[in-house]
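Q: Got a minute? One more chain.
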Amino acid sequence: MAKTSGVAPRLAKALAIVLGTDDIPIRLRAWDGSEAGPEGAPLIEFTSRRALRRILWSPGQLGLSRAYVAGEIDPHGDIFAAFAALSSTGKFAEPGPFSKPTVREIWTLFTTAVGLGALGPNPAPPPEEVRIEKHGLRHSKKRDAAAISHHYDVGNDFYALVLGPSMVYSCAVFDSEESSLEAAQEAKLDLVCRKLGLKRGMRVLDVGCGWGSFALHAADRYGVNVVGVTLSTEQAEMARKRVAQAGLTERVEIRVQDYRDVDDGPFDAISSIGMSEHVGRAQLGRYVAQLHGLLRPGGRLLNHAISWNAGPTPDDPDSFIPRYVFPDGEMLSLSDMVVALESGGFEVIDVEALRRHYALTLRAWVRNIEEHWDEAVRLTSAGRARVWRLYMASSALGFEGGLTGVNQVLLQRPGGEEPPLRRTEWM
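A: Always. Here it is, folded:
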């Protein structure tokens, strides 16, 4: 039977301050085996005093994230239940950056740390954390390349474990909640091809081509010629191997190239699937102008992107996502994205919301990680596996709660043939 006295009650009060709530929504187990918090609530264990020290130095999402990535905080059981409990409480329930503790609250944290023997210098961040500022100005080509490398160049074998055989790293499209991830990803790739109106002999640009899955599908099933560009050298290496194995080297070219440097248009169609989140608000006009200039009159663009649905877009460089997952990534609202695309000369011919589909996709990826946990750790590191587990599980909850969405916006450059009268052409 767990102890109900000892470290846990004092630790629970400190955690409540950080969360901005009177009562913690979890069952907390401390490093001495004591427990506090509601019976039957999701259990989270603080395995080391160092976790409290991190929180003292960074009393917010960053301190908690560092402690989790370092293995000093460990959720037990259903990780979705634990994260859902936390995300529905206090500061986690408020969109945007964590508000800072008051002077009195910081003093309480300090005295708690002293009393629990956790006071000391600020621990070094886990090695999985990145400070992207050293790579130059935000969204410069050099810094964008570094940001992409941080996220994608962590091992193709690791991504194969997480994503499954499709190697598609974007929202799938499910016929039903019982559909397999592989079937749903194939359905998404084919949906994009149909929306773009692909026909044999067309020339297609795939911006942010990943491991080449869309390029392979489009070239094999629709007989088009595809140029795929990515900033990830590891993605490009694997994509080229897949192209060669499929016997499609005459139809698919994979480049390590910034989309801003593509200058060999025109293309008959352009796909941008899960890439524009990396562009940044300040570069959005340039992104739209570049794709518009590369597309022939009458050609279609499919822009598939995550959207922020909860008011002003948060910009907190000291939160978990920019420090560990997507450095410099920026989510825009759907309305902001559509305005930018229309202002750049495109005509919107269809918008499809896929929010629920991304939640299902992310839950499938989390299952893949958890079912092959030891292998995931071996292929990267325990910290990296923890980062991806936290990021994907928390993202799934964000889509389920409507905080974030994902939308396919289908556009056409004016000129050439008219768009179809009804969307039934690609349904």
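A: The chain has two domains: 7-115, 141-425.
Q: Perfect, thanks.
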